[in-house]
Amino acid sequence: MFKRIALTSVLCALVAVPSAFAAGADQPVHATGTIMDAMCGAGVTSQADAEKHTKECSLMAHCAESGFGIVIDGKFHKLDAEGSKKAEALVRASSKKDHIDAAVEGTMHEDGTIAVTSLAETK
């Protein structure tokens, strides 16, 4: 009887563990990175790649239509729809021709997409 109770307890614990991790999968984000369009961002392999990306390219129709994201530590993270709108406005308003950096705050989802609550250019 004790073995059956112990085995049942262990099985219940194993079932509960993945649920706990899934619930905590979204993580808060407070970071600085380089803004760029999603089309070009998909090919980024380093922070240096992102820093060479131009404002002119990001604002080309087909690039801007792909949405926007931010490269943090060499990895591209797509922004949610509202964040993408904020990023496009930020790029349009920037006086810089390339290497447009911004501070982003929000929530990073499991897939790497960031739900943006705040986005501001850094100089």
Which stretches are low in confidence, meaning pLDDT under 50 for 5 or more residues running? 5-22
CATH topology description = OB fold (Dihydrolipoamide Acetyltransferase, E2P)
Percent of residues in helices: 40-55%
The CATH architecture assignment turns out to be: Beta Barrel
CATH class: Mainly Beta
The count of β-strands is 5
Mean pLDDT comes to: 85
N-to-C CA distance = 68 Å
The biggest sheet amounts to: 5 strands, antiparallel
Given helix and strand content, the structural type is alpha+beta
Give the count of helical stretches: 6
The ordered H/E elements are HEHHHHEEHEE
Q: Which overall shape is indicated by the principal axes computed on the Cα atoms?
A: globular
Radius of gyration: 20 Å
Strand content: 25-35%
Query: Widest sheet: strand order?
Result: 3-2-1-4-5
Number of domains: 1
Q: How would you describe what is shown here?
A:
The protein is globular and about 35 Å long. The protein has helices at residues 2-23, 38-41, 47-52, 55-58, 61-64, 81-93; strands at 27-37, 68-72, 75-78, 101-108, 114-121. The protein has a five-stranded antiparallel sheet with strand order 3-2-1-4-5. Helix content is 43%, strand content 29%. The chain contains six helices and five strands; from the N terminus they run αβααααββαββ. It has 123 residues and is an alpha+beta fold. The model is unreliable at 5-22 (pLDDT under 50). It has a single domain (27-121), classed as OB fold (Dihydrolipoamide Acetyltransferase, E2P) (Beta Barrel).
